[in-house]
């Protein structure tokens, strides 16, 4: 199946055209391989899709919406994606976190400006986030590569690691005000797991540091613009994409020097079949998926009437209340219980990208953290959280579209049980995923690699799982990633 094809250029096949499949394909194409991408859906993008729902002219993102890690991606930021139509847009305030007192913590790209708004906790915020924000580019380069390696910047990585290894509950003790504790807690909740576990602080620390460096931007015209830009670059580099092609077995694929699978581990095991070594099959089929998301897209007349004026200018708003309330909700979800007050991430992309609105009707997207495979309807609980911090929201809703965990999986089979992070973020999986291995992308089958969000460094529209897997494939072919090849191609 993976024999080398004849001709001057070796061939590669990538199964799946989500952000990681596209990133893998671009990496291989720019390294000189002839690449074909096969996508089961009729549209590329996976989590990077956008479209109208109930109200004509009001544009929503289907899954990924705000791209703090995409803007800071060590791979994506080397590509001239602006030449292919990608434009990052940022709201005045990147992130807001309201609390029950009617105030809100606000995250700006400036660490100093953020600290100024946090009152007594300002100095503590600057001490904690000033250094990693200044080192964000270096840190992202380090932590978004497989961790089993010799670090290029050991001192900076160690300084960050001293905090990242801690539970988020311990880091939160540095702050005294509800706004600062909530602002950190909402970012830490991107873990989708207990905030009291070791390494739980790592996600929050990294996304806040990256936010201070790159902001929390959206793609003009919807997240699909990022997928289109990657696809256009791929085609310019000689690659091609076929949609509507569902792969059930490696035997369906044409001969190729290398194959990369942008699939969930169990799906990859099914496609590889009996070729997969037993130890790898066990790891893939027993892969533990994480808590899920329940999505609610609202077309809102005049926008959400937040009590905290700060929230009206923020591209992203976290709804969860106090740090303790967030930690309780995340613990419940991880244990398989639906909390009365779930944590919500709300995206107001139209503030940065007004073209997503239709007149005074604006798109507001939210997802709640819910148990894996949750079969209930979280709409009422989510709207109650809106009303808690923005009384009168219900009266302004022109149309609402709910997307359950099952709906998410039907729309994208990689989102097993509604899991949008590619697997449970346990302490082990925060260091090695999807299995314990020096090279997490190798499947044990020569020439076949896994490149989905289940691999390191995990979820997010940053393309690093695909890029890292493609580099592993290149090494297996006796090639090295041409670091300066991107600049030559872009010119």
Task: Give a verbal description of the structure.
- This protein is α/β, with parallel strands linked by helices.
- The protein has a domain at 11-50 and 77-83 and 220-287 and 416-490: FAD/NAD(P)-binding domain (3-Layer(bba) Sandwich).
- The protein is 34% helix and 16% strand.
- It has helices spanning 19-30, 68-71, 111-116, 122-134, 136-143, 154-164, 168-172, 178-188, 201-214, 224-236, 265-272, 278-285, 323-334, 379-389, 393-396, 405-411, 464-476, 485-490, and strands at residues 11-15, 34-39, 50-52, 59-61, 88-89, 93-98, 104-107, 218-219, 240-243, 258-261, 292-301, 314-319, 344-347, 361-370, 397-403, 448-450.
- A seven-stranded mixed sheet has the order 7-6-12-13-14-11-15, sandwiched between helices. A five-stranded parallel sheet has the order 9-2-1-10-16, with helices on one face. A two-stranded antiparallel ribbon has the order 3-4.
Content-based structural category: alpha/beta
By CATH, the architecture of the domain at 11-50 and 77-83 and 220-287 and 416-490 is named 3-Layer(bba) Sandwich
Strand order of the largest sheet: 7-6-12-13-14-11-15
Indicate the CATH topology of the domain at 11-50 and 77-83 and 220-287 and 416-490.
FAD/NAD(P)-binding domain
Number of alpha- plus pi-helical segments: 18
Summarize the structure.
With 491 residues, the protein is of the alpha/beta class.
């Amino acid at each position: 199946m993976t024999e080398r094809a004849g001709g001057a250029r070796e061939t590669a096949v990538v199964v799946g055209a989500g952000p990681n499949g596209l990133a893998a394909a671009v990496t291989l194409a720019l390294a000189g391989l002839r690449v074909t991408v096969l996508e089961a859906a009729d549209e590329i993008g996976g989590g990077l899709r956008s479209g109208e729902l109930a109200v004509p002219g009001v544009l929503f993102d289907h899954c990924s919406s705000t791209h703090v890690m995409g803007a800071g991606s060590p791979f994506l930021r080397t590509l001239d994606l602006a030449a292919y139509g990608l434009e990052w847009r940022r709201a005045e305030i990147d992130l807001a976190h309201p609390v029950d007192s009617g105030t809100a913590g606000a995250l700006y790209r400036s660490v100093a400006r953020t600290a100024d708004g946090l009152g007594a906790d300002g100095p503590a915020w600057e001490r904690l986030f000033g250094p990693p924000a200044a080192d964000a580019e270096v840190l992202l380069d380090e932590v978004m590569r497989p961790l089993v390696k010799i670090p290029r910047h050991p001192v900076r990585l160690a300084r960050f690691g001293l905090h990242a290894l801690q539970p988020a509950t311990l880091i939160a003790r540095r702050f005294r005000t509800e706004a600062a504790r909530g602002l950190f807690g909402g970012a830490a909740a991107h873990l989708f797991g207990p905030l009291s576990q070791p390494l739980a602080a790592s996600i929050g620390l990294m996304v806040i540091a990256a936010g201070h460096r790159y902001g929390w931007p959206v793609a003009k015209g919807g997240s699909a613009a990022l997928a289109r830009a990657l696809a256009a670059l791929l085609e310019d580099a000689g690659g091609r994409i076929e949609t509507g092609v569902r792969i059930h077995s490696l035997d369906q694929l044409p001969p190729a020097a290398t194959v990369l699978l942008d699939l969930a581990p169990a799906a990859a095991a099914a496609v590889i079949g009996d070729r997969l070594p037993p130890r790898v099959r066990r790891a893939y089929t027993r892969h533990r998926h994480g808590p899920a998301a329940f999505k609610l897209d609202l077309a809102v007349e005049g926008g959400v009437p937040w009590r905290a004026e700060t929230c009206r200018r923020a591209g992203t708003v976290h709804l969860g209340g106090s740090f303790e309330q967030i930690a309780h909700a995340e613990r419940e979800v991880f244990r398989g219980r639906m909390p009365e007050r779930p944590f919500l991430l709300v995206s107001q992309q139209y503030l940065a990208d007004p073209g997503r609105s239709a007149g005074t009707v604006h798109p507001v997207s939210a997802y709640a953290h819910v148990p894996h495979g949750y079969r209930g309807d979280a709409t009422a609980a989510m709207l109650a959280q809106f009303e808690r911090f923005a009384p009168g929201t219900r009266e302004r809703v022109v149309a609402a579209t709910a997307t359950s965990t099952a709906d998410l999986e039907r729309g994208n089979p990689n989102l097993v049980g509604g899991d949008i992070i590619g697997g449970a973020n346990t302490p082990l999986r925060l260091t090695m995923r999807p299995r314990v291995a020096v090279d997490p992308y190798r499947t044990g089958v020569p020439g076949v690699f896994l490149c989905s969000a289940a691999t390191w460094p995990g979820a997010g529209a940053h393309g690093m799982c695909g890029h890292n897997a493609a580099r592993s494939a290149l090494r297996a072919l006796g090639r090295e990633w041409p670091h300066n090849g991107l600049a030559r191609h872009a010119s």
